[in-house]
């Protein structure tokens, strides 16, 4: 049995706006259709059940999404793209002309990317002569407490991008410190 038109996510969004929708309803709008066995709202509820909290969607993988009944590769890719768009919109820094003048600037630039990760990530910021970020790259993802990176990987990319300088950054999943080396 289908929900009444006024109770469907699309109609509720048209009437009340996206802010009035539940997490499940927003997911249902992105998924667009259900299957013969489950409505789109049931599939959305299954996704929320799987991730437990909306914030955990930022870490969901393609494999985790496609393991949910009713979520195929295309629906999973749509959700992952929407999650990435949201992450980019929420980013507090503009990567185009962000200038690094202090360790605090570098930390502010990468903090959002590195917060809440469960493994060590080794990141490199490639800078031009004005200390503006040319490129940001995660070079290696390690274990819970270690990341091993060979210098050749860092310098090869720095030369390729004609970087005047680089900043080496890695997180501590325990949340204690963020290390930045120039």
Plain-language structure description:
The protein is an alpha+beta fold and 182 residues long. The protein has 2 domains: 5-90, 5' to 3' exonuclease, C-terminal subdomain (DNA polymerase, domain 1), CATH 1.10.150.20; 103-181, Cytidine Deaminase, domain 2 (3-Layer(aba) Sandwich), CATH 3.40.140.10. Helix content is 41%, strand content 15%. It has helices at residues 9-16, 23-31, 40-51, 62-66, 73-90, 103-114, 151-160; strands spanning 121-127, 133-141, 165-171, 178-181. It has a 4-stranded antiparallel sheet, with helices on both faces. β1 and β2 form a beta hairpin. The longest helix is centred in the middle third of the chain and has 18 residues, at 73-90. It is elongated, with a radius of gyration of 20 Å. 19% of the residues are buried. The model has no long low-confidence stretch (mean pLDDT 86).
Concise structural overview:
The protein has seven helices and four strands, in the order ααααααββαββ.
Which percent range describes the beta-strand content?
Answer: 5-15%
Radius of gyration: 20 Å
The low-confidence parts are: none
Structure class: alpha+beta
**How do the strands of the widest beta sheet line up side by side?**
2-1-3-4
Q: Give the N-terminus to C-terminus distance in angstroms.
A: 61 Å
Q: Which sequence of SSEs, written as H and E, runs from N to C?
A: HHHHHHEEHEE
* Overall mean confidence score, pLDDT: 86
How many β strands by DSSP?
Answer: 4
